[in-house]
Amino acid sequence: MKKEIICTVCPRGCHILVEGDEKSVFSAEGYSCKRGLEYANTEYLSPVRILTTTVKISGIDGDLLPVRSAKPLPKDKLSECMDIIKKTEVKLPVKRYDTVIADICGTGTDIVATKDIG
Amino acid sequence: MYNIKCDVAIIGGGPAGLAAAISAKEEGAQKVLIIERDNALGGILQQCIHPGFGLTRFNEELTGPEYYSRFADKANELGVDVLLNSMVLQIDSDKKEVSCVNSEYGLTKIEAGSIVLAMGCRERTRANIVIPGTRPAGIYTAGSAQRLVNRQNIMVGKKVVILGSGDIGMIMARRMSIEGAEVVMVVELMDYLAGLTRNRVQCLDDFGIPLKLAHTITKIEGNERVTGVYVAPVDENKKPIKEKEEFVECDTVLFSVGLIPENEITNKAGISINRITNGPVVNQYMQTSKSSVFACGNVVHVNDLVDNVSKESEQAGKYAARFAMGKFPKSKKEIPCITGRNVRYVCPHKIAISEEIEKTTLFFRVLAPEDNVKLIARCGEEIIAQKKEFRANPGEMCNLLVDTSKIAGDEITIEVVKED
Asked: Which residues constitute the domain of residue A31?
């Protein structure tokens, strides 16, 4: 399986053509540095993203708590995580980096607040 | 009338104002006051809940709230005063006075030793780019939609077309998708991306959102609510090719078509404005044409990275403090920064030559994308700073560090030269 990956490590934005199967990368072309090759490998085998969104505050309409995943989450888990987050409400006060949802969807990563409110 | 006295008065409590306040305090200014029209500090970063801030400054990927909170906490620790819910009406650069209206005190006069302009910018709207059609509900600028969705819990639509591939537009494409809306396409007039490549990958490609380069919206349809838009490719003169026009169904249109520095106060004070950046002309101390007034951040020129805003704002805060304390460097002369090959503008616009030996960063943007280039600063034929880049993009600010003691002659030229 071939996949073209645009590297986001630096503004150069190399187009890297990666060939492999589900478990490993056979070859990569078009990268210009070691970090680019690493990025292409991760992006091909198990792409991850930081998830950011907001959470409802109990009893308050018209204000939201911004949250993030403490670490990047697997890309294919993001929509499952959003389903949980959408059903979540928090009670004030909340401090920055307080855990809002622990170990979301069994990923081992917490959803944390990014702001103090209340 | 309510009166306040301070050393440095800073207009705007976003990332620029916060960084300026901290460095003014650290430089030794006693009383530093931030005047903010919103009910909280942080400016636009309050609604920028996505990551990508602080990569150059902190070597970490922070969200907007995390980034500004670091500065707001520091400002609080240092004892910076803050006047919230206060709209500045005008400044008097000779008397060094700021007039504002505060929701509690009413008309308020602030006497300062120096003034820092950090008002940021506002979005260009549909009216600015004149898109024909009806005026139904469902048309927003990307930033106002961002505020509604991220701060006020109001979802703006279900099926969205975005005009403009600027960063805010792409980030809103992802945000709307995550929240369950369908983003039909992002339409861009130019034949290249306006924002950062990283945002194209993570905000459009990740969600399979098509990017239509060299296209534009020719008409908006709908009576009470948007029902769709006509999209057409454009020729080399950016004129829509009518025969290839297509109807695209949607209920919401977001505009991400550029930002305008917010300089009503600056204009009223008679401060010189640069025609390209639409912001005040500044030297490397971020000092405007009125010596008591400094300016920093998006009010001077629209930045792509907040990390750069913090850096230049610290410079503004530092020198505004020195001005207020009577310790401002005496300059022998000021020389202009001239835009050479493939350079749209340079900030600062001029450099004050003083006794002090200084290193100063010149920020500039290219006119068109170019690969394998050399960025050069020269005085006459003599090159005083240079650096190689794999790629220069209009959407990504370039910079060069210049030693001001090396400057000779009456001007400095910044150019981008193609390497073989």
From this structure: 2-45
Indicate whether A62 and A39 sit together in one domain: no
Segment B70-86 shows an average pLDDT of 98
Closest in A6, A11, A96 to B396, CB measured: A11
CATH code of B202's domain: 3.50.50.60
> Is residue B28 located within the same domain as residue B44?
yes
Tell if the CB–CB gap between A6 and B51 is shorter than 8 Å.
no
ipTM: 0.89
Under an 8 A CB cutoff, do A11 and B63 touch? no
- The kind and range of the H/E element at B78 are none
Distance CA B409, CA B318 (A): 28
Q: Name the residue among B69, B151, B197 with its Cβ closest to that of A6.
A: B197
Query: Which letter does DSSP use for residue B414 in this model?
Result: E
Helix, strand or coil for residue B105? coil
Q: Which of B49, B50, B152 sits opposite A62 (nearest CB)?
A: B152
Statement to judge: residues A23 and A40 lie in one domain: yes
Q: Is B327 on the interface with A (CB under 8 A)?
A: no
Looking at residue B207, what is its pLDDT? 95
Smallest CA-to-CA distance from B108 within B234, B255, B211, B5 is with: B5
Indicate whether B156 and B193 sit together in one domain: yes
> Structural domain of residue B87, as residue ranges?
1-123+260-328
3-state helix, strand, coil in chain A (%, to 5): 25, 40, 40
Q: Which pLDDT score is estimated for A11?
A: 65
**Residue A118 maps to a domain:** no
- For chain B positions 67-106, those within 8 Å of chain A (CB to CB) are 69
Residue A32 within a domain: yes
Q: How far apart are CA B166 and CA B188, in angstroms?
A: 9
Question: Residue B221 pLDDT > 80, yes or no?
Answer: yes
pLDDT tens, residue by residue, B307-361: 999 999 999 999 999 999 999 999 888 999 999 999 999 999 999 998 887 899 9
The encoded tokens of residue B355 equal 């006794």
Which residues sit opposite A16 in a β-bridge? A5
The residue ranges of DSSP E strands in B26-85, in sequence order, are: 32-35, 51-53, 62-63, 81-83
B308 to chain A, any CB pair closer than 8 A? The answer is no
Q: Both B129 and B249 in a single domain?
A: yes
